[in-house]
Task: inverse folding
C-alpha cells in the first residue's frame, strides 16, 4: 500500500501520517514515543504492585495455607505456560528485529507465532481454571475444596484468581495490540527507517511476560 | 530552523551501528531464560524451606532483567527510560515494605481470623511462664 | 529579553494569523481538536462545572448542620452528600484542575513548543475524564454512595448504595489523570526549545512535572484498589473480607498509598502557579529558584513515604505509626523551603496588588497555617484525639480550599488575558477575593475549634453545645459561595463583552507571555531559542537582584 512519504526536514522518507510536526525530528519523536511507552509500563507495574502487596501480606499471615494450596496447583501446566510466554517474548523480539532489517514477511510470521503462543497460554490457563472449578478451589466465600481445609486457603485462591485474572486481561489486551501491529506490518508500515510502532507493541507484550515471570514462582513454586 | 541544542539520541538505528543488526543476543537470552526456568522449577519443587522464596525471587529478577535489558532494549535506551522503569520498581518495593512491615510488627491480637495464633512467629520474645499459650 | 531579530518579526507576523479561538468555529472543530489550548479550555469549563456541583453539595451539608438534630434531610442522605462532595471535589475538580486546564494551556507555551508530545492522547484524556464523570453522575443520580470518599472496607463492599458507579467513575477518571501526567513528562523531556535547559525551566513547569510523576506512580495503585472493591461487590470475593481472613487495614494501606500523594497532586501545581504569580506581581526574579524547583521533586517523592498518618488509629503497628509520623514531618520541610523563598521574592519587590496577588496573600496565609496543623496532626499522640474530627477537616480544607483553590483562582485571573485576550474587572476581582478570604476564615476556623472540642466528622447529629460554631461555619460557607459566584459572573461577562487587552497586560517575564494573547493555533511561527533565565525582571537600572538564580 503506497504511503505518501514526507520530505520535511528531519523526517525524510517517513510516511506522512506517522509524523508529529511539533517534533523537530524523527529521532525526537521516537524518543518521545519510547519514553511515553515506558511511563505507561511503569503504571502497569504499579497496578500489579497492589496485587503483589496483597499476596505478600496474606502469604505472611497464612504461610502454611499458601504452601498447601500452592502444591495443589498444576505445576506442569504452570511451567508449560511459563515456557510458552518466554518463547512468545522471543518471537516478538524477533519480529521487531525482522521489521528493523526490512524483512516484513518474517516479521509478520513471528507476530503470528506470538499471537498463537498467547492463545496457547490462555488455553492452558482455561484448562487450569476448569480444574479449579471442578475441585471447588475458588476464591473467598466460594472456596469448598476438599484437599486443603486450612484457614487462609480461600485467601490463596482469591489472590490466585485476582492475579492470574488481571494478568489474563493483559494477555488479551496484548493480543489485541499484537494483532494491530501485525495488521500494520502486513501493510508495510515498518522498515529500517521507521519501526517504533512495532517496538512499542513489543514492549507491552514483554511486560505481560515480565509479570508472569514473577507470578509463576510466587503461585506455583512456594 | 534553529537546530536543537539538545540532540536526540539516535538510539539503536541498525545502520548507524556499522554492521548488521544481529539476532544472536535474542537467541542467547531465550535459551538462558529456558535454562533459568528449569532452574527455578527444580529449586522450587525441592522445597528448600526459608530459602525458597529468596532463591525464587533472585532467579525471577535475573530472568526479568534479561527480558528488560535485551528484549526490551533497556540497555540501549536513554537514561530517562531506565530511570522510569527503576523508579516504578522502587515504589512497588516501598508499597510492599511498609504494608508487610505493618502486619509483621503488629501485636498478636491484632492479626485477623485464621492467622497463626500462638505459633512461634506470633509470639513476642520474653513471655513469662504463665503467659505462654497452651500447647494444642 | 534576548529574542533574535527573526523571532521578533515572526511574532509580529503572527499578529496577522488567527488566534486559536478563531481558527475553526464549528462545534466539531472544538470536539475534534488536537490543540492543547482548546483542550485546556474545555477542561477548564468541565472542572469549573464540577467545582460548582461539589460546592452545591457542600452548601447542602452545611445547611443541615445548622441544626444539631434531624433537619432538612435524613441521615443516609447526609452520608451520600458528604461522600459525593468529597468524590466530586477531589476526583473531578482538584486533581485535574490546574494540570489539565492551565497546565495544558500554558506548559507548551512556557517551553517553546507547538503542542504537547501526544496531542491526540491529550484529547483522549479529556474524553476519558468526561466518561468517568458521566459514570459517577449516573451513580449520583441513583443516590450515590454513602461510604465517604475514602470507601473503607468492609462497609464499601457490603453497603447497598450505589458504590459501584462511583468507584468505576473514579477508576476511569484516574486513567485521564495518568495520561495527562504521561503527556507532560514526555513533553518536558523532549519538546523543550533549543537552549532551554532544565535549570531554566519556569517554576510552573517544575510544579507540573513533579505532579506528573506522582500521577504516574500513585494513580495505578488506586486503580487496582478500587477495582478489587468493585470485584468484591459484584463477584462476592475479595481481598478485604475479614470473614475469609482478609484485612480491612490492607485496603487502607493501598488506598492511602495513592491518596496521600494525591493531595500533593492537588497542591503542587498550585505552588507552581504561586511561584509564577509571586514573581510577576512583585516584579522580581525567583529567590532560591533551585530550591523551589527541587523542593517540588522532594515533595513528590517524600510524599509517598507518609501515607500511614491517615491510619494512626486504624490498627496498624506501632512501628509503622512511628515511622510514618516522622516521615510526615519531614515532608513538611519542602513546603517550608518554598514558603521562605516566596517570601524572599516578595521582599523589596515592586508589588502590584492585583486580584491574583490577593489570592497569593490568601494562599500563603492558609498554606502556612494549614500546613502547620498538618505537622501537628502527624504527631501520633495528638492525632489520637483529633482523628476523624473536624480538626482534620479544617486542616485539609485549609490546604485544599485555602491554598489549592486560591492558587487556582490566582492562575485563572493571571492567565485569563492570555487565554481569552480579555481583561476581567479588577475592582470586582478584589471584592470577590475579599469575600472569599473572609468567608473561608469564617467557615473553617470554627471547624478547628469544633474538632478540638471533639466533634466527629461525618456525623449527622451533634451535641447542642456545638451549634453556635456550626452556624458560624455555615454562614462563612455561604459567604464563600457568594464570593465564588461573583467570580463566575464577572468572568463570564468579561469573556463575552469585556475589553480586548494587549498581549502582556501584566508585563510578566514568563515565557508564555512571549506569544500573542490569545496565542495562534501553532503558538510560534518559528520555535524560539530560549537562553534567558526564567522570571527575569532585572533591568539596566537594577541589574543586581537579591537571590538571582
Result:
Amino acid at each position: 500500500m503506497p504511503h505518501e512519504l514526507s520530505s520535511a526536514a528531519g523526517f525524510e522518507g517517513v510516511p506522512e501520517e506517522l509524523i508529529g510536526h511539533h517534533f523537530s525530528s524523527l529521532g525526537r519523536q521516537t524518543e518521545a514515543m519510547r519514553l511515553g511507552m515506558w511511563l505507561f509500563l511503569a503504571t502497569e507495574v504499579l497496578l500489579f504492585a497492589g496485587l503483589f502487596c496483597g499476596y505478600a501480606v496474606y502469604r505472611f499471615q497464612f504461610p502454611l495455607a499458601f504452601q498447601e494450596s500452592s502444591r495443589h496447583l498444576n505445576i506442569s501446566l504452570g511451567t508449560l505456560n511459563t515456557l510458552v510466554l518466554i518463547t512468545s517474548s522471543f518471537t516478538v523480539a524477533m519480529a521487531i528485529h525482522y521489521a528493523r532489517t526490512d524483512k516484513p514477511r518474517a516479521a509478520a510470521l513471528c507476530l503470528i507465532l506470538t499471537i498463537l503462543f498467547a492463545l496457547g497460554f490462555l488455553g492452558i490457563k482455561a484448562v487450569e481454571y476448569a480444574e479449579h472449578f471442578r475441585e471447588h478451589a475458588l476464591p473467598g466465600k466460594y472456596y469448598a475444596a476438599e484437599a486443603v481445609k486450612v484457614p487462609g486457603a480461600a485467601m490463596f485462591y482469591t489472590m490466585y484468581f485476582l492475579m492470574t485474572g488481571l494478568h489474563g486481561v493483559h494477555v488479551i489486551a496484548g493480543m489485541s495490540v499484537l494483532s494491530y501491529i501485525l495488521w500494520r506490518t502486513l501493510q508495510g508500515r515498518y522498515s529500517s527507517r521507521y519501526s517504533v510502532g512495532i517496538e512499542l507493541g513489543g514492549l507491552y507484550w514483554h511486560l505481560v511476560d515480565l509479570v508472569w515471570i514473577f507470578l509463576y514462582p510466587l503461585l506455583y513454586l512456594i | 530552523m534553529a537546530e536543537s541544542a539538545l540532540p536526540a539520541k539516535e538510539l539503536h538505528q541498525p545502520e548507524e551501528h556499522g554492521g548488521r543488526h544481529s539476532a544472536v543476543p535474542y537467541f542467547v537470552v531465550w535459551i538462558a531464560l529456558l535454562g533459568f526456568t528449569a532452574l527455578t522449577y527444580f529449586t522450587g519443587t525441592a522445597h528448600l524451606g526459608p530459602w525458597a522464596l529468596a532463591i525464587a525471587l533472585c532467579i525471577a529478577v535475573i530472568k526479568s532483567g534479561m527480558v528488560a535489558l535485551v528484549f526490551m532494549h533497556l540497555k540501549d535506551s536513554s537514561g530517562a527510560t531506565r530511570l522510569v522503569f527503576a523508579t516504578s520498581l522502587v515504589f512497588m518495593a516501598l508499597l510492599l515494605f511498609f504494608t508487610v512491615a505493618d502486619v509483621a510488627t503488629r501485636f498478636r491480637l491484632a492479626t485477623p481470623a485464621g492467622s497463626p495464633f500462638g505459633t512461634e512467629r506470633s509470639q513476642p520474645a520474653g513471655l513469662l511462664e504463665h503467659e505462654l499459650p497452651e500447647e494444642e | 529579553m534576548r529574542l533574535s531579530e527573526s523571532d521578533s518579526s515572526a511574532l509580529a507576523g503572527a499578529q496577522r494569523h488567527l488566534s486559536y479561538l478563531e481558527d475553526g468555529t464549528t462545534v466539531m472543530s472544538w470536539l475534534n481538536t488536537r490543540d492543547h489550548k482548546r483542550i485546556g479550555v474545555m477542561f477548564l469549563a468541565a472542572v469549573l462545572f464540577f467545582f460548582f456541583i461539589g460546592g452545591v453539595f457542600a452548601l447542602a451539608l452545611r445547611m443541615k448542620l445548622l441544626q444539631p438534630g434531624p433537619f432538612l434531610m435524613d441521615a443516609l442522605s447526609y452520608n451520600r452528600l458528604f461522600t459525593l462532595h468529597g468524590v466530586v471535589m477531589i476526583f473531578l475538580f482538584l486533581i485535574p484542575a490546574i494540570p489539565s486546564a492551565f497546565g495544558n494551556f500554558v506548559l507548551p507555551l512556557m517551553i517553546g513548543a507547538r503542542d504537547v508530545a501526544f496531542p491526540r492522547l491529550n484529547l483522549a484524556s479529556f474524553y476519558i475524564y468526561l466518561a468517568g464523570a458521566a459514570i459517577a453522575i449516573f451513580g449520583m443520580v441513583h443516590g450515590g454512595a454513602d461510604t465517604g470518599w475514602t470507601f473503607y472496607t468492609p462497609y464499601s463492599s457490603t453497603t447497598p448504595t450505589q458504590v459501584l458507579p462511583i468507584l468505576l467513575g473514579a477508576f476511569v477518571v484516574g486513567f485521564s489523570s495518568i495520561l495527562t501526567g504521561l503527556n507532560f513528562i514526555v513533553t518536558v523531556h523532549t519538546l523543550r526549545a533549543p537552549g532551554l535547559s532544565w535549570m531554566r525551566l519556569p517554576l510552573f513547569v517544575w510544579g507540573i512535572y513533579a505532579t506528573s510523576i506522582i500521577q504516574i506512580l500513585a494513580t495505578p495503585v488506586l486503580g487496582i484498589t478500587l477495582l478489587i472493591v468493585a470485584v468484591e461487590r459484584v463477584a462476592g470475593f475479595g481481598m478485604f473480607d475479614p470473614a475469609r481472613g482478609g484485612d480491612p487495614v490492607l485496603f487502607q494501606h493501598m488506598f492511602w498509598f495513592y491518596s496521600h500523594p494525591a493531595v500533593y497532586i492537588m497542591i503542587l501545581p498550585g505552588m507552581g502557579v504561586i511561584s509564577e504569580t509571586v514573581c510577576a506581581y512583585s516584579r522580581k526574579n525567583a529567590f532560591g529558584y533551585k530550591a523551589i524547583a527541587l523542593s517540588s521533586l522532594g515533595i513528590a517523592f517524600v510524599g509517598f513515604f507518609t501515607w500511614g498518618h491517615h491510619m494512626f488509629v486504624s490498627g496498624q503497628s506501632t512501628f509503622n505509626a512511628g515511622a510514618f509520623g516522622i516521615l510526615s514531618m519531614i515532608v513538611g520541610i519542602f513546603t517550608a523551603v518554598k514558603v521562605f523563598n516566596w517570601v524572599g521574592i516578595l521582599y523589596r519587590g515592586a508589588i502590584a496588588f492585583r486580584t491574583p496577588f490577593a489570592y497569593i496573600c490568601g494562599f500563603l496565609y492558609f498554606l502556612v497555617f494549614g500546613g502547620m496543623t498538618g505537622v501537628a496532626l502527624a504527631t501520633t499522640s495528638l492525632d489520637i484525639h483529633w482523628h476523624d474530627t473536624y480538626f482534620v477537616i479544617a486542616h485539609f480544607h485549609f490546604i485544599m480550599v485555602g491554598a489549592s483553590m486560591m492558587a487556582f483562582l490566582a492562575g485563572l485571573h493571571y492567565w485569563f488575558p492570555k487565554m481569552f485576550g480579555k481583561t476581567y474587572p479588577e475592582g470586582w476581582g478584589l471584592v470577590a477575593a475579599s469575600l472569599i478570604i473572609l468567608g473561608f476564615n469564617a467557615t473553617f476556623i470554627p471547624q478547628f475549634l469544633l474538632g478540638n472540642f471533639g466533634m466527629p466528622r461525618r456525623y449527622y447529629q451533634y451535641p447542642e453545645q456545638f451549634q453556635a460554631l456550626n452556624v458560624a461555619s455555615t454562614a462563612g460557607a455561604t459567604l464563600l459561595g457568594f464570593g465564588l459566584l461573583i467570580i463566575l459572573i464577572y468572568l463570564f461577562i468579561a469573556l463575552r463583552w469585556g475589553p480586548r487587552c494587549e498581549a502582556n497586560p501584566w508585563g510578566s517575564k514568563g515565557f508564555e507571555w512571549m506569544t500573542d494573547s490569545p496565542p495562534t493555533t501553532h503558538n510560534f511561527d518559528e520555535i524560539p531559542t530560549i537562553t534567558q533565565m526564567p522570571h527575569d525582571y532585572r533591568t539596566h537600572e537594577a541589574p543586581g537582584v537579591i537571590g538571582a538564580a
